[in-house]
Amino acid sequence: DTAVSQTPKYLVTQMGNDKSIKCEQNLGHDTMYWYKQDSKKFLKIMFSYNNKELIINETVPNRFSPKSPDKAHLNLHINSLELGDSAVYFCASSPRQGRDRSSYNEQFFGPGTRLTVL
Amino acid sequence: GNSVTQMEGPVTLSEEAFLTINCTYTATGYPSLFWYVQYPGEGLQLLLKATKADDKGSNKGFEATYRKETTSFHLEKGSVQVSDSAVYFCALSKGNNDMRFGAGTRLTVKP
After folding, report:
1. Which of A103, A83, A100, A87 is nearest to A42 (CA)?
2. Which of B52, B101, B106 sits opposite A43 (nearest CB)?
3. A10, A21, A107, A113: best mutation site toward chain B, by most B Cβ within 10 Å?
4. Do B95 and A97 touch (CB under 8 A)?
5. What are residue B54's phi and psi, to 5 degrees?
6. Does the pLDDT value for residue A57 go beyond 90?
7. Across residues B46-51, what is the average pLDDT?
8. CB A29 within 8 Å of CB A82
9. Is the per-residue pLDDT at A100 higher than 60?
10. B93 lies within 8 A of chain A by CB
């Protein structure tokens, strides 16, 4: 009954390769996110999608391209991988903001994908 | 812009010690405030939350009170356990699906 799942859990690849990370949520949420966590545990948002539409796109190289085939999936494709891309990538989801403040925007995180670029 | 500043770690405590991890925020209006916990090798999990001034969030013996006058949301626990060893993140949200996280504080509890 995994709420937010990511595959693969570990990804080791050579510089210059292209790779994808998949994310799926079965919570019925409208919004999904990708975060990058560096070796010092600093968490930085990369993208946010609401109902398959991009709503947040932080300063991220255009080698990173999110793809949302439906609102339950948000995949991350990375072209021409570089050493500095090595990190843990987290997918997350949250329900749509309600009219009152009770929906909190709590985010539910996947287990992470550890990407190592050699 | 909206941001969160939290106490730098690492923090090392003995079992049963009192824990405080400081968190202050900068935001216009009335953000919702959160503490998330990340155990080794896992994703972040919500620990507790508060949506308005003077609200107290609590869970698993942890507490934090939303203080608008000091723009703070400090995390406290009266008696930590070895199993509390993790990285703790303070975060805020203004309700536009944009969550801002602090830098994280690593806590190690020794037996």
Report:
1. A87
2. B101
3. A107
4. yes
5. 75, -5
6. no
7. 94
8. no
9. no
10. yes
